[in-house]
Every structure is written in structure tokens, then in C-alpha cells.
Amino acid sequence: MVTREDLVRELVRLAAVEGPGVTLWRFEAATGINAMMVRRRWGGMAQLRAAAGLPEQIRRGVVYTDEELFEELSRVGELCGEFPSVAAFERLAAYSWMTLSRRFGRREVVWARYREWLEQQPIEGRPGYLRGLPLETPSAIPGVIRHGRTVGVGGEG
Q1: Whole-angstrom Cα distance, residue 157 to residue 150?
Q2: Contact 31, 10 (CB under 8 A)
Q3: Which H or E run includes 150?
Q4: Are 107 and 98 in contact (CB under 8 A)?
Q5: Least buried of 15, 86, 116, 148, by fewest C-beta within 10 Å?
């Protein structure tokens, strides 16, 4: 049975060879001790790293502004000629739909926040497929009634 102390000892040994930036993935690959064992014994790699006296790892992810996220959504919409589906966004965007989802939540909330942002844009700043359409009328914007049904909510439409 692998103990908490065994995990600390293995991480200290590995860090001595590879440096203090050992990740959970690297720890698992080098030791054969799976990530679930680390989670069960320590709660996660951050806690194990702290117990081993290693510095906290700093994530260096890109942080986009709301403006940048919605501009990319508009750019992809321009390419599609309509409000992009999640699949189209995944295929054509510079980043994943998960970036939007993590920031705003469910698809319906992304659509609502995008619509709010669009309402603040001048007509010429809107995607071509929406230019000239009042946002309160039936259109290609998800969540808006078109032909007697709600479109785009939940990725359908």
C-alpha cells in the first residue's frame, strides 16, 4: 500500500532529478503512481507539492477580455454567415468553446451575454449577418423567436 509519506518521498526524489516543476502528469509517468492515488492521499498535486516543500506552480494561461471573446464569436459568425454553433466555433475559433463556457456558464448564458454585448456595438460593428437587423426582432441570434419557435438555445436551431 502506498502511503502519504511514500508519495512525498517519490516526489522529492523526482524533483531532485528533474527540478521543482514536476507536474502530476510527469509524476505519474515517472513513478507509475496514478493521479487518483495522489488525489486520495493528498487531495491533489498542489497539496502533495506543498508537503514535499516544492514551490507552488503558477499557471500561465492566457486571459481574454470579454471584448476579445465576443469579437472572436463575431469573427467566427462572419465566417459561418450565421450565429455559429458550438461545433463551428470549435472548428474555426482561435480558442475553445470551453473558454466562453468557463467565463459565462451554460450556452444560454453565453448567448445572452453576447447579445447584451452586441446591443452596445454600433450597427457597423456587428457581424455582417446581423447588420441592419434590430436585435429585438426575429433573427439568427439564439434565444430569439423565429418562425414561431425559439432558435439556438441549447445549441439547436
Answers
A1: 7
A2: yes
A3: strand 149-150
A4: no
A5: 148
pLDDT digits (tens, 9 = 90+) for 58-94: 766 778 899 999 999 999 988 888 888 889 898 899 8
The dihedrals phi and psi of 150, each to the nearest 5 degrees, come to: -80, 135
pLDDT digits (tens, 9 = 90+) for 30-60: 999 999 999 999 999 999 999 999 998 876 6
Neighbours of 70 (CB within 10 A): 22
- Between CA 68 and CA 104 the distance in angstroms is 14
CB neighbours of 117 closer than 8 A, spacing ≥ 6? 66, 67, 70
Query: Residue ranges of the domains in the chain?
Result: 4-51, 66-155
Which pTM does this prediction carry? 0.51
